[in-house]
Amino acid sequence: MANSLNSTLKMLRSGAAMQAFVLLGAGVAGSAISVVPAMAQQQPEAVAVGQEEPAGTDIVVTGSRIARPEADSAVPITVIDDTQLSLEGQQNISDVLNELPQVGIGQTRTNTNFSTSGTGTATVNLRALGSSRTLTLVNGRRFIGGFAGDSAVDLNNIPTDFLERVELVTGGSSAVYGSDAVAGVVNFILRDKFKGISVRGQSTLTGKGDAQRYFASVTAGETLGDGRGNILVNYSYDRDEGLFSRQRAISAQDCSGVVCGLGSFSSFAPQGQFRLLSPTGGAIAAVNLPTANQFFSFNPDNSLARLDGFNTGAFGFNRNGVRYISVPVQRHLVSGIANYEITNGIKAFVEATYSNVKSQASLEASPIANADLGSLGYNIDNPFIPAAVAAQIAGLNSDANPANDVGFIGFRRRQNEVFSRSNRASRETVRVATGFKGEIADRFNWEASYVYGRLRDFNTTQDVDAARYRNALDAIRVGPGNVVGTDIVCRDVAARAAGCVPINLFGLNTADPLASAYVQSQVAKSEDIVNTQQVWSANIAGPLFALWAGDVGASIGVEYRKEKTVDDLDFLTNTGGNSGNQIPDLVGQFNVKEVFGELNVPLLKDKSFVKYLGLIGAARYSDYSTIGNVFSWNAGAEFEPISGLRFRGVYAVANRAPNIGELFSQPSETFAAVSDPCDGITAATATPEAVACRANVPAIGNFFTANPTGTFQYSLADIQGINGFVGGNTALKEETAKTYTLGVTVSPQLVRGLIFTADYYNIKIEDAIGSLGRSFSIQQCLLTGAPVFCSQVTRDSSTGFVTTVNGQLINVVTLETSGIDFGIRYQRQLNLLGNDRFSFNGNYTWLLDYKQQSDPTSAKIDSAGTYGNGFSTHRFNVRGTYSIDEFSFSWQTTFTSGGNYIYNDGTGPSVSNTPAVEALNAQPDYWLHDAQARFDLKSGYSFFFGIDNLFDKKPRYLPGTPFGTPTGLETAADYDVIGRRFTAGFKFKL
After folding, report:
1. Rounded to whole angstroms, how far apart are CA atoms 973 and 470?
2. Would you call 338 exposed, middle or buried from its count of C-beta atoms within 10 A (0-12, 13-18, 19+)?
3. What is the per-residue pLDDT across 625-674, written as a single tens digit (0 to 9) for each?
4. Which of 181, 185, 187, 186 is nearest to 737 (CA)?
5. Which residue ranges make up each domain of the chain?
6. Which residues does 555 contact at the CB level (< 8 Å), separation at least 6?
7. Which helix (H) or strand (E) holds 27?
8. Whole-structure pTM over 0.90, yes or no?
9. Backbone angles phi, psi at 105, to 5 degrees
10. Is 787 helix (H, G, I), strand (E, B) or coil?
């Protein structure tokens, strides 16, 4: 088997993929199978050797609208059925999907604490290509996007106990389902029949007694009209209490590189850190005033403390002490389905979903420096200045050295008693799908439907009004005492009349509550997101005519879709009047008209060495109001030489239209740090960038003419003052994905109840939407002069300094990924100890490459083999279950192979080449084990007890810098950051 796999890999990389799979299929068919799953459909019934297997029926399987036998899907499908869901015992379907090797980490409870919107959301991210490139469906129909201007669906809206199964399709499926299906499709199939009442309840607690989770669900169903219809309803409630970073050793303290604790704390401390500044607000050179005489802070008793610069140690602040490592989430979900046969062959249906989801972040109080408020700092006559500092300033300003004169006191301070910036999110989602479906002449199935979806996501937090804050900083003394508002007042008379109260930031908890209330924004900082979606569609499918090998199946349909987003931010955020950057509202909409069709053509059947041979094809023509006409298609073949051995292959051209946010986001301001290659060069610096700086920037050339021995250098204020605007682009076009899959399915007659699959996938996305790095634009403008780069960069004509660097979304990125999925599913009635059974299923993905090219001038970076992020070379998830009578025991193992966490070209991570960081970069293999015991009594009652992360496997330390891991985690979201968890629950049916 190992030799067969090695040969296969060589052939795949040389392009002979079909030959490889012929050999692989033949090798598997004649060998003992011990690999891991991706299935064609539902779990097969357990059948003893020698018994007849249940006959298959034609159904509609995700990836096609043409009904066919469930095991004969022409595209790779992974299925999670309700049996597996019950063994998982999870209350949120995202926790189940994230265990699959085909899925990269999307947004989860453990990486959204710092989301300005989207706190506590959950998305699915097939092939780690981005959640917006995975099309999420419910019963084959679209679901409203869960984010402003984005199609990605928040899985918090999917009721776990209402699911019959989940189907995942790899590869481009735009021809069948439309835009966004470039990485694949996840289709949630809801129950449509149920009679009686079913109740499930469970509770989860960690081995440390924290991170509690509670879940309760009630499902009720009844038939209507003498069996002509049925109705079923589900209500689910669950609550996750979340987990603070300080509750786990790995994230209890701020870390930077290899240092955790003192030395890595924030210099924005609750008691403040301060610096004497010149009369122009600039830094005073150490040669004129020693550093130790410039900086100061306060001890815990608010006595004055002198510093040698901004301090990240004992006078710093541990931000992780108040952050969440997993945010709390509370959900109410109500789902209902009704079907009624109006006449023979015509059935009306309604599907309805309502969800209310609440979550909140826990962030440290906002760090604010005087520059963030557009202020030079405290005036030196401010009455709050400590007496010792005031005396020092008076002495410096009265001596004979003007170079050490002080004009302002700059500050950086945590706003603990001033305001909280922790986000609170409340989301309401409503979706209704309704229509009619039926049969014509017992031959054609048809459906006409309408889907309406609406999301309202309301986010609130506190902030300050920068203008009020500046007024409060500028205080004067008008009385002999120290009473704020009486003896010490705001300097501006008009501000005083409007209620200004001066603010004292010198020390811990020194801000008067009235001053804190005054500087807070009088307009609540909020973001009110409303997404709406309407979809009208109709299709008909069935056999067109018969050929010698069977019926030619066909499907044809039309669809009209309209989507709109309004992302309304408060006035101060719109104008940049608070502590953050200026962000405009987002308003955008589009519509698309589509026609689509499929064919399934059998060519040969029941011939010598050809049990079945057929072709499939699909096409979709789309007319977008934003990007114009788009055409997607696929074509494939199926070949079954003998019973139980089937080959399949599909080539597809899929697309993703730019979403509303990418098209219509207005430019928003950023002050993120950038790097100018000209910074620090001399007349002799010989790098290509330095040569270009002197030759291509007139002001820099003039500088060296006047200062041949000088250094062209930015001050800290110059660097911090470089702004830029980033935003959408109405000139964007669609992303195009060219994908193909080649696979084999083995279901040997001698081993009933076994299905094995192996599928090679290859996805290449061209013209993917992205933005150029702002520093990169500066560099490439210097080296190439290309307008695509230089149009983003503005330099001061007199100084040569970069003043503005913009970053606009463009079609510039290329993504490529390929690999092999293996799947196995097996059930067997053992009859060893009576009525005992065994089942086994698993999924294994072998990632061959994952390449990204950020722009045409950059090299492709292959991340395959790095740890996590969906890039690990080997990932698998397997589960074995042994059952006897009413008792069952299940064991699940999830594996992720190790590697460097960030790309390593052999010289070490590009951000840092220190040996200590190199050691952190190397991550070992990671195993997790879960177990569950279950009692299913004949009376309809079930009791279960499960342990997740049975051996309490700890995550590995990975600081945010240089690895870019989620803030506050100090590790990757691919790891289990919570630890061993115990779940106990029950279920009963009446």
Report:
1. 40
2. middle
3. 999 999 999 999 999 999 989 999 999 999 999 999 999 998 777 787 88
4. 181
5. 266-317+367-414+466-519
6. 64, 65, 66, 539, 540, 541, 597, 598
7. helix 17-29
8. no
9. -75, 120
10. helix
